[in-house]
Design goal:
heterodimer, A: 1132 residues, 9-stranded mixed β-sheet, 6-stranded antiparallel β-sheet, 33 helices, 42 strands, B: alpha/beta, 6-stranded mixed β-sheet, 5-stranded mixed β-sheet, 10 helices, 38% helix, elongated
Chain lengths: 1132, 265
């Protein structure tokens, strides 16, 4: 509706405006058109006036010319008289008189004389003389004397010839002529009509152009002014608008001379004439236009103002409508009269307060009072309302249900024309919820500020220009600001160092441009001390409701430490996957991780190894001490390294080089162990191979010369230290060269390998067999007997064994082959020469053996050779003696303190067929070295047992106990106990009557074994005596443990008993010891009564020795015993 | 010619006879006789309508008389009569911007020049032959000069192709030109000004470059040194105190004024 009205108003305004403008334009146009017409009229009149003036001037001038001509013709003036006529006639060039023939016979210009005048072209034409002035056409030239018809162009100068006939007296006629100066008239016309504005033409009455102020026109034309001539036919005066042949329009006026045949034509250029009008018209139109525009502008402004007022009026109406709607808005509204009586409420009021219209209308406003405001509050309210006409504020009101609500109340007073309030309008908003939200927001703000001030992260909010709005205190600190508030408004580029600022700024530009968040970017940064570190940054755009980016916020976190750890870990991970096997365990030795190299070395995959302990790899090659020292090193130094034998998953045992490092936790306790291991099997093998090549003979795998010499040096040192002997045996195969030549080297090599194996089988562990090359072998024996003879025997025995072994036939690729060796031996002891010397000696001994006919051995030392040979002979004979029963058993009686024979010691004697009786001292050691002691000892025991069996049948002999010596070697035999028992069983002897005598050297052996064997035999009833007591190493502890029955005081103490008090002390001690241990004592070597008495005095109750009897054969002993018993019986 | 020579002889004798004493005579008679040409517009022009004399030299003559504390009496003369009027003592001094020419210097004594004019031509507005100065000396062109003026000998000497017409009077040369019998007449700057101001047909044709400059001065009898010195002193004073320049400006002749200090006889 208002829109339509507005459109109508605008249309009306436009039409009126257009009408006014049109009228003004029309009026102006009309006026100007009128003015133009007037101008044209005016100028036509002006042209006519000019024409009249010029005609007047012309006619008067020609009157004078006419008069002058009449005078010239009538009077006889002569030349000077004619000239005098010209004096004040500038329109004449000359004046002349003609003779009857028409020639000039007198002229003011003498040069004209004789010129003939042709007048047929003159006007008016006159066949007869005529008393009027006639006019000729314009001639070119200054005067008659050079006058001629004008050419095609306007002449530089010209004149109009005129003539006048004058009747003299009677019928005679005289003619006078003049040349009229046209320039005179042109000057006159030009002075009056500006040639630029118009032209003046002088026509002859017949239309011939005589003069024109327009220099372009050509005089003499007839056709120039058809229009003028046409009009001249009707009127001699006229003016009109003329269209010129050149296109111009002229305001033309013409006028014929009153008396002479001339017509004057004045043409004014219409355009020129209208020039002023045009200027004036332009000016007028301009003024009108300005005025019109000004008027339009004013009316436009007025219309705009009118429009605005109209709009305001409409707006007022709209406001009223809105107010009506607003009254039913979400805000509670109440209208009261001036006494605060409720007139009207809206629905929202009911919603807010709970009160309905029926309940409150007509009543006072007090119904909502909460009672929480005091009376001054309400008084102030009314006072302010009265003063300002409005009051706004928060007020606590009581809801109909009794609850108190915070309301925002606006009261506006409505006043009458005198300014007195007539109504009050209250607007009510329940702001309880808003209050709650505000409190919540305040709390949120407080918490957020607290968060910003306390978080260690860099939090920041910026506007779209990268200027800080707010940020966390941590960020303020590293950028050198005291408070985060100091950063507000600062730009990113001015806050951070340039190299990092440009990165952050670039991120923010992109983020604000694209609106896409930046997540988890790692950027460099500088902390408060200027150290370079790393931050993890995420930034998000902040968008308004329309999705436009209004700023950004971001979180950055210092990840320098984390990143360093990460790098370390990465490096560690790469290092971990090195070529070395790696193994990590925790403190409790549980495997946490292994690498690929570990799996390749050990065969255990990671899954198989993790969770186990490194015991998985144990080879069993190392004892517990090895691992204990390893852990000790780890605990003390934190590291261990060394070679260790481990077992692969496939069971293979291999050496590896292992390095273990301890990782400590923050408290300094081991948290992990890191082991790196390298398989050094190949290295070991390589080392071994190298050693083999260096020290071993490749063919036989025996030590080579080099290793032999090395060991020889060792042996020499050892021998010197231990006071032992060593021996070097050179062994050479007889006729080896023949074998090689006959069967080839392959066969030879096969033989050498078999010889090597047999040689190794011949020697003890610790001895060395070496191959020097070819068929030359060397055996190095150490730890031989300290006595050279025994040592020689030991060496010989080995040599014999070698000889016997190598003499056994060989199987060489199916061929039975017999081969014999030759052996050279040298013994050595302390400081007996250097290695080379010994080798030479052995080599020389070998030559000796070869020279002795091969398949034999020879000693380097001839005495040794002799001694050894002798002993060898003796051994052979002893062996025979055992077989041939050449040995005899002798018995030496043992007597108690009462002199009774209580037993006998069995002693072996060799009845040599050539040497006679050989003492045990000569053959027992030999028997011991050659193991003949075993059959010998057995023979002694069997013989003694048989004797006991025999004696047991005799009442006088049944009590006798036989003591049998048992050598250490014999006792050491594992089946010794069984042998003894077998002998007892076979002989049927009473074990109680068998006493075995042992030496103290036995106690140096395995004591437990000794005790076990003794205990076993004692269980059968056998008793034991310790021989030669006091010379050896027996300690009290041994004595206590051994199941002994008797100690036997060595004869060395007995022999000097009466000479050396010490011996007596020893003897006494032995007796006391035995008594304390519950053992019996017997003294041997008792040869005198004094000795026997002294011993008795010491408490020794049994004796053996030459005082009583030497060792006797069985027969002799039995005899002696019968005699001794008899004799004793005789003694009191 | 004989008559002219005789006249010259008379003049010489007369001059010799009254050799000394113009100054004394003027002061004794308390009157100074000044020869003028009353048609010389701007110089010594007698306005025909009022019969009053006006012009720079009328002003200067009156000033000189005032300086001498005597009356002044103007004696009509002309260029044709000048030498005779002065030498025959019809006036004490000729003051009408007399061009210093050799012929005149032979007979008269000049003061130092105060004006200097070139030669100008006057033609009619409607004359189609003469557009510029260069059109003047062409075949068929008739050039008029007044007899006795300085232009007569100069133009006689300078014209090569045009025809020279010598008129007896100065009016004659104007009539010849206005009637078309002559195309131009030659005159100086002051007279050309008069033509342009008093006729509606005259048109000025000025030389494109300097054609022939003539210094103008006052003339007196030769041999009367005190008189000459007295007049010179007056002119010096008038030049110095600006009287001369004021007069020149009053009559719009400043284009041809001789710059002060450049003239020295």
């Amino acid at each position: 509706m208002p829109l339509q009205a507005r459109r109508r108003r605008r249309a009306l305004f436009s039409i009126v405006t257009l009408l006014v403008a049109f009228s003004a334009c029309s009026a102006t146009g009309y006026t100007l058109w009128r003015l133009r017409a007037e101008r044209i009229t005016h100028h036509l009149e002006s042209a006519a006036m000019s024409a009249r003036t010029f005609e007047n001037h012309l006619t008067q001038s020609f009157n004078i010319i006419d008069t002058s001509l009449m005078q010239a013709a009538s009077d006889k003036l002569g030349g000077t008289g004619l000239s005098r006529l010209l004096r004040h006639a500038p329109y004449l060039r000359s004046i002349s008189t003609l003779d009857a023939t028409g020639r000039i016979h007198l002229s003011s210009d003498p040069r004209n004389k004789g010129v003939h005048l042709t007048t047929d072209q003159f006007l008016p034409p006159a066949p007869e003389p005529l008393e009027i002035l006639r006019v000729g056409p314009l001639l070119s030239g200054r005067d008659f004397h050079d006058g001629r018809e004008p050419g095609s162009s306007a002449p530089l100068s010209g004149f109009i010839p005129v003539i006048r006939d004058v009747r003299l007296s009677g019928e005679s006629w005289k003619s006078a002529a003049a040349s009229v100066n046209g320039d005179y008239f042109l000057n006159f016309y030009s002075a009056h009509v500006d040639p630029r504005r118009g032209t003046v033409e002088l026509l002859r009455y017949d239309g011939l152009l005589l003069l024109s102020t327009d220099e372009q026109t050509q005089p003499g034309r007839h056709d120039a002014d058809q229009e003028v001539l046409k009009r001249l036919a009707t009127s001699e005066i006229g003016s009109f608008e003329e269209q010129r042949p050149d296109g111009r329009t002229t305001l033309t006026a013409y006028r014929a001379s009153r008396a002479y045949p001339f017509v004057l034509v004045v043409r004014l250029d219409k355009e020129q004439m209208l020039e002023n009008w045009r200027k004036e018209a332009t000016r007028s139109a301009g003024i009108v236009a300005i005025v019109l525009l000004a008027g339009l502008a004013l009316s436009g402004l007025y219309f705009a103002r009118f429009e605005r007022l109209a709009r305001e009026r409409e707006a007022d109406q709209a406001r009223l409508r809105v107010a009506a709607i607003a009254f039913e808005s979400q805000e509670g509204m109440v209208v009261t009269d001036d006494a605060y009586r409720v007139l009207r409420i809206n629905k929202a009021f009911t919603t807010i307060t709970g009160f309905t219209a029926e309940e409150v209308i007509g009543g006072s406003m007090n119904f909502m009072k909460s009672g929480l405001h005091d009376s001054t509050f309400y008084a102030d309210l009314r006072a302010q309302l009265a003063r300002n006409g409005t009051w706004a504020g928060e007020i606590l009101n009581r809801h109909k249900d009794g609850s108190i609500h915070a309301h925002f109340l606006t009261i506006t007073s409505v006043c009458d024309d005198q300014g007195h309030p007539t109504h009050y309008v209250g607007t009510l908003t329940d702001i309880t919820e808003r209050r709650r939200l505000e409190a919540e927001r305040d709390e949120l703000n407080r918490d957020f500020v607290s968060f910003l001030e306390n978080t260690t992260d860099f939090i920041y909010f910026k506007d779209t220009n990268s200027r800080f709005r707010f940020c966390s205190q941590a960020l303020a600190r590293i950028t050198g600001h005291r408070s985060w508030r100091d950063l507000t408004g600062k730009h990113t580029l001015e806050v951070f160092p340039p190299d990092t600022a440009s990165i952050y700024h670039g991120e923010e530009i992109a983020l604000i441009r694209d609106g896409t968040p930046l997540i988890d970017k790692t950027d460099p940064y500088y902390d408060g001390e200027g150290r370079r570190g790393w931050i993890n940054t995420s930034k998000w755009p902040i968008l308004d409701e329309s999705g436009k980016v209004t700023g950004l916020f971001g979180i950055s976190r210092d990840i320098t430490a984390h990143r360093r750890t990460e790098i370390d870990l990465r490096i560690a991970a790469i290092a971990f996957e090195s070529q070395q096997g790696m193994l990590i365990t925790d403190a409790s030795n549980t495997i946490l991780r292994v690498n690929r190299a570990f799996t390749e070395i050990t065969g255990y995959a990671e899954a198989e190894a993790v969770g186990k302990t490194p015991r998985l790899l144990r080879s069993g090659h190392h004892d517990s001490d090895f691992y204990a020292s390893m852990y000790a090193s780890l605990h003390s130094t934190g590291a261990w390294q060394g070679e260790i034998w481990n077992r692969r998953k496939n069971g293979e045992i291999y050496p590896e080089w292992m390095t273990i490092s301890t990782v400590l936790d923050n408290d300094g306790n081991p948290s992990h162990y890191v082991a790196s291991l390298t398989d050094i099997t190949e290295r070991k093998e390589a080392e071994s191979e190298i050693r083999n090549l260096a020290f071993y003979d490749p063919l036989t795998q025996l030590p080579n010369r080099r290793l032999l010499l090395d060991r020889l040096r060792h042996t020499l040192a050892m021998v010197a230290r231990n006071k032992h002997h060593g021996a070097l045996l050179f062994i050479d195969l007889d006729n080896f060269k023949t074998l090689n030549d006959t069967f080839g080297h392959d066969m030879g090599d096969l033989l050498l390998q078999q010889v090597a194996q047999r040689l190794v089988s011949c020697i003890r562990e610790g001895d060395t067999v070496a191959r020097l090359g070819g068929d030359e072998f060397v055996v190095l024996l150490d730890d031989l007997h300290a006595a050279s003879t025994e040592a020689g025997t030991q060496a010989r025995i080995v040599g014999d064994k070698i000889l016997a072994t190598l003499n056994v036939p060989y199987d060489l690729a199916g061929h039975d082959y017999h081969c014999t060796p030759s052996i050279g031996i040298t013994l050595f002891a302390d400081h007996e020469g250097e290695s080379d010397e010994l080798m030479k000696r052995a080599d020389l001994a070998l030559y000796g053996a070869k020279a002795a006919g091969r398949n034999t051995m020879r000693f380097f030392d001839p005495e040794m050779q002799a001694a050894v040979s002798a002993r060898a002979t003796l051994e052979k004979e002893l062996r025979i003696a055992l077989q041939q029963q050449e040995l005899r058993l002798y018995y030496q009686p043992q007597v108690n303190e009462h002199g009774a024979i209580i037993g006998a010691e069995a002693l072996v004697r060799w009845q040599h067929p050539r040497l006679g009786l050989v003492t045990p001292a000569r053959f027992i050691p030999l028997a011991e070295e050659t193991h003949l002691i075993h059959p010998l000892g057995l023979w002694v025991l069997e013989t003694a047992c048989h004797q006991l069996r025999k004696w047991s049948a005799l009442p006088t002999r049944a009590h006798l106990v036989i003591a049998v010596n048992v050598s250490v070697r014999q006792f050491r035999q594992p089946d010794f106990v069984e042998q003894v028992c077998a002998v007892l069983d076979r002989s049927g002897a009473d074990p109680n009557k068998l006493k075995l005598e042992l030496t103290e050297s036995l106690l140096l052996d395995d004591l437990e074994d000794v005790i076990a064997k003794m205990t076993a035999l004692r269980a059968r009833g056998i008793s034991f005596a310790l021989d030669d007591f006091g010379t050896g190493y027996s300690s009290l502890a041994y004595l206590q443990r051994l199941p002994l029955d008797q100690l036997k005081i060595d004869q060395s103490f007995v022999r000097d008993l009466h000479v050396h008090p010490n011996d007596a002390v020893i003897a006494r001690s032995i007796v006391a010891l035995a008594r304390n241990l519950g053992l019996s004592v017997i003294a041997e070597g008792v040869e005198t009564h004094m000795q026997r008495n002294l011993l008795a005095g010491l408490g020794c109750p049994a004796y053996q020795g030459y005082l009583f009897s030497p060792p006797l054969t069985r027969e002799a002993f039995e005899s002696f015993a019968e005699a001794w018993e008899a004799e004793r019986d005789e003694r009191p | 010619m004989k008559r002219v020579l005789a006249a010259v002889g008379l003049i010489v004798m007369a001059s010799a006879g009254q050799a000394a004493g113009h100054l004394e005579r003027v002061q004794a008679a308390r009157e100074m006789r000044v020869c003028i040409w009353p048609d010389y517009y701007g110089i010594s022009y007698r306005n025909p309508k009022t019969q009053q004399l006006e012009g720079i030299d009328i002003d200067m003559a009156r000033a000189l008389a005032r300086d001498l504390n005597v009356a002044v009496r103007f004696v009509d003369s002309s260029f044709a009569q000048l030498i005779g009027d002065v030498t025959q003592d019809r006036c004490d001094i000729a003051m009408f911007a007399i061009g210093i020419t050799p012929q005149r210097s032979d007979k008269l004594r000049f003061t130092r020049p105060h004006l200097m004019s070139d030669i100008y031509a006057i033609t009619t507005k409607s004359n189609r032959r003469i557009k510029t100065w260069d059109d003047i000396d062409k075949p068929g062109v008739v050039v008029a000069v007044a007899k006795g003026t300085l232009h007569e000998p100069i133009m006689r000497d300078k014209l090569r192709q045009a025809t020279l017409m010598v008129t007896d009077t100065t009016q004659g040369r104007e009539q010849e030109v206005e009637s078309g019998r002559a195309d131009v007449f030659m005159t100086d700057f002051p007279f050309s000004r008069r033509m342009l101001e008093t006729t509606d047909w005259a048109r000025l044709v000025a030389p494109t470059t300097t054609y022939h400059l003539t210094p103008y001065a006052y003339a007196m009898q030769q041999g009367d040194n005190p008189w000459h010195a007295r007049v010179e002193q007056f002119l010096a004073d008038a030049t110095r105190n600006g009287q001369l320049m004021d007069a020149i400006r009053r009559h719009k002749l400043d284009p041809i004024a001789v710059p002060a200090g450049t003239s020295k006889n």
